[in-house]
Description:
Shape: globular
Order of helices and strands: EEEHHEHEHEEEHHHHEHEH
Structural class: alpha/beta
Family: Belongs to the KAE1 / TsaD family.
Number of helices: 10
Strand content: 15-25%
EC number: 2.3.1.234
Subcellular location: Cytoplasm
Largest sheet: 5 strands, mixed
Bound molecules: 5'-O-[(R)-(carboxyoxy)(hydroxy)phosphoryl]adenosine, zinc ion
Distance between the termini: 25 Å
Main location: cytoplasm
Helix content: 40-55%
Pfam families: TsaD
Radius of gyration: 20 Å
Amino acid sequence: MRVLGIETSCDETGVAVYDSEEGLLSHELYSQVKLHADYGGVVPELASRDHVRKIIPLIEKALDDANSSKTDIDGIAYTQGPGLVGALLVGSSVARALAFAWDKPTIGVHHMEGHLLAPMLEDPCPEFPFVALLVSGGHSMLVDVKGIGEYEVLGESIDDAAGEAFDKTAKLLGLDYPGGPHLAKLADEGEGGHYAFPRPMTDRPGLDFSFSGLKTFAANTIRASDGQRQTYANIAYAFQEAVVDTLMIKCRRALKQTGRKRLVISGGVSANKHLRAAMKKMLNDMGGQAFYPALNLCTDNGAMIAYAGCQRMAAGQTSSLSEVAKPRWSL
Ligand code: KG4
Ligand code: ZN
């Protein structure tokens, strides 16, 4: 089965072709980061308009690179939600229009299911069951994954998502949007032992997260500082260490609670090399194994949507052409 996947939930236009026998055949991505940089965040209306401009050429390129024409495609998967409504509407309208014109089935995919399954595109890939830590700009959650579509949310953020906390703290440090990767780079110049950031919600039971307090702590620390680059680097270091530590404590707890030995880390923040290294070591020490997507598939992309859609279609599921975009949609 060969599936065309389309992702337009936020500020990346992603298109890919995944084949159940041959794997990922092509993967095109256009990032709008530069378009939104001056505004310090994603401007929804600009995002929708740019998806409109980029989506058709990207589909043509993805099909070309996969040596495929419409006749080779068995179905079209698109991100149905959650995300920005205007952005979602572009991908879902194009997907459904192509499906109607080509007489192919469609499947609407949950964006976080895409992230959750992205590590399945790697070799080796995790076997079910596993615990997934999904940490992106919009969500932070721990999920017990028993199989495709069998997801139990164990915990989630009660306020800011992990990526959002990275972005907001980076902004306070004067770094460009999206700040996560810039903050991580600045932290590389920093050293530990200068600041004692809290590890929110780790002193009470449960698997929910809260990151807004860390951002406030960072804001107060920055305000009271001398504003020197080395000081900012030390603050970035301490902030990142606190996020990674907090996520590790919660993951250890989730693995213990479920008895799972495999941990999948996915979503934009899983590109953070300290988080990757810390989780890998923790799982090795526990006699388990950590899995994450390749760096270019941690953030939003069409490959994860094509993969998730292909699995759903292989299980006999399709969506009606009258399905609507779901800007709010729980996993
Ligand atoms: O999954 P994603 O592309 O979009 C959403 O679905 O939200 O995640 C984007 C988030 C942003 O908040 C970005 O700052 C963060 O992932 N991010 C990182 C790193 N790379 C991306 N955060 C920390 N360290 C990184 N290296
Ligand atoms: Zn995402």
